[in-house]
Write a structure and sequence with these properties.
By secondary structure, the chain is an alpha/beta fold. The chain is 51% helix and 11% strand. It is globular. It binds BIS(adenosine)-5'-pentaphosphate and magnesium ion. Magnesium ion (MG) binds at residues 13-14, 30, 32.
Length: 202
């Protein structure tokens, strides 16, 4: 199964993607994590993307496509993958569709996590305050820029995917992590698991 998560910064994409990927037994590919790891390791990629990420801007489309194509070439992606944070612009989505089509593949589900800006600001401010080693882009100056970038450059993707049959699933991202996860499972036709929550392994 091939799944894409879309949502504003702080919507819970990372939280829910990690859980869904474990549940489905497919790799969780967070482009933000890949770039943050490159920055931490001081690689050439990390040096290019570090300042862009910290300020809340977007890394260039071509570079992102290279990063994703390289990761998808690994064997663990053969049976499917969950992309968290890519595509993030309409040009990325169009190029990615071509990439998939040339390999006779397609996306099964695009999950839009919907959370209002006011809640996002609260979540990211809390994370910035509470983390020992906070993310540079959670600083109070970068958060508004990330939100603007989402509304201007990423949200047009929703119209793009809405025109592709029944691929786009809109999920309310407000509520507990368990509640949102159950909504996500329902949205992709998996129903709500019946096991008691404390015995879940994902
Ligand atoms: P990326 O790492 O993708 O960051 P983001 O989307 O801006 O936001 P987050 O990762 O902070 O949010 P999230 O939705 O994953 O939420 P999370 O689960 O963490 O990208 C970072 C940067 O990399 C970009 O700005 C860009 O520069 C670059 N980049 C990456 N991909 C790119 C691409 N394709 N093209 C160009 N540039 C790219 O949760 C957030 C907080 O909320 C946490 O504290 C969490 O505990 C809490 N939380 C989660 N769920 C709930 C809930 N249900 N209720 C209450 N709190 C919750
Ligand atoms: Mg994330």
């Amino acid at each position: 199964m091939r799944i894409v998560f879309i949502g504003p910064p702080g919507a819970g994409k990372g939280t829910q993607s990690a859980r869904l990927a474990r549940y489905l037994g497919i790799p969780h590919l967070s482009t933000g994590e890949i770039l943050r790891n490159a920055k931490k390791a001081g690689t050439d990629l990390g040096k290019i993307v570090g300042p862009i990420m910290d300020s809340g801007g977007l890394v260039g489309d071509e570079l992102m496509l290279d990063v994703v194509a390289e990761r998808l070439a690994a064997d663990d992606c053969n049976a499917g993958f969950l992309l968290d944070g890519f595509p993030r612009t309409v040009p990325q989505a169009k190029a990615f569709d071509q990439f998939l089509a040339s390999r006779s593949m397609h996306i099964d589900h695009v999950i839009e996590l919907r959370v209002a800006d006011v809640e996002i600001i609260k979540r990211l401010e809390t994370r910035f305050r509470d983390m020992k080693d906070p993310r540079a882009d959670d600083n109070p100056e970068s958060i508004p820029r990330r939100l603007n970038v989402y509304h201007n450059e990423t949200s047009p993707l929703l119209g793009y995917y809405a025109r592709q049959g029944n691929v786009l699933k809109k999920v309310d991202g407000l509520g507990t992590v368990d509640t949102v996860f159950d909504r996500i499972l329902l949205s992709i036709g998996r129903g709500i698991p019946r096991a008691p929550r404390d015995t879940r392994h994902w």
